[in-house]
Design brief:
The complex is a heterodimer of chains A (about 140) and B (about 70). With about 140 residues, chain A is an all-alpha fold. The longest helix of chain A has about 30 residues. Chain B is mainly α. In chain B, helix 2 crosses helix 3. The chains are: A mainly alpha (about 140), B mainly alpha (about 70).
């Protein structure tokens, strides 16, 4: 297995930690603000935590795999295993079928709850985007396969 | 799909782990193939056949009636 560079993930992790610290500082120093400045510190904390945790985890994983080529080989085989890929694809397809039921039900529920029309439109657009992307990929794969 | 993979593998004295390692698939894939729960891709079928020095038809048994019933 080709050993992956750890540096990129460390840099992103440090960047995430900095955003997290900035967010925490802003939470403490800007208690009475309105508008975007009220939400910004919490966005920083959220994004910072995600970046820090995700990239630190990835860098630890790469470090361990680089130290243990046997484990790396097994992980690579598991990731490329055709049955695992088939299972994953089947699970995604089933989840999509479920989403086709959940999404309209959610839209109907939100409509009945009389939520803001713009919020409802955003959800409908997202639903349509996903539905049209299926048509796009069916067409694309029809040409490729 | 039925197959003779387990029988052939045991004849050659190879474990599932060893076969999986050679074919670069997981041990669970070998187990599922042997149980007939999973049908391999044509590439994996060729790899298996070549590893044992046999043809695909010698290992995998195509039963048209069974395949039609599965649809």
């Amino acid at each position: 297995m080709k050993s992956e560079s750890i540096a990129k993930y460390i840099v992103l992790s440090v960047f995430g930690l900095l955003i997290l610290i900035v967010g925490l500082v802003l939470v403490k120093t800007l208690p009475d603000t309105t508008g975007i400045m009220r939400a910004l510190p919490y966005i920083c904390v959220g994004v910072g935590t995600g970046l820090f945790g995700g990239n630190l985890g990835t860098s630890i994983k790469i470090y361990i795999l680089n130290k243990n080529p046997d484990i790396a080989k097994k992980v690579e085989i598991e990731a490329k295993d055709e049955r695992n890929i088939a299972i994953s694809n089947k699970a995604k397809a089933k989840a999509y079928d479920l989403m086709q039921i959940v999404f309209p039900a959610l839209i109907l529920a939100f409509a009945l709850m009389q939520i803001d029309i713009y919020a409802l439109l955003v959800i409908i657009v997202a639903y349509l985007f996903v539905s049209f992307s299926v048509a796009y990929y069916v067409n694309k794969f029809n040409k490729e396969m | 799909m039925k197959n003779r993979l387990e029988e052939i593998r045991k004849q050659r004295g190879i474990t599932q782990e060893e076969l999986a390692e050679v074919l670069e698939v997981s041990r669970q894939t070998i187990s599922s193939l042997e149980n007939g729960r999973y049908n391999p891709s044509i590439i994996l079928a060729f790899k298996i056949a070549r590893f044992f020095g046999m043809s695909i038809e010698d290992i995998f048994i195509y039963d048209e009636v069974e395949q039609n019933n599965e649809k």
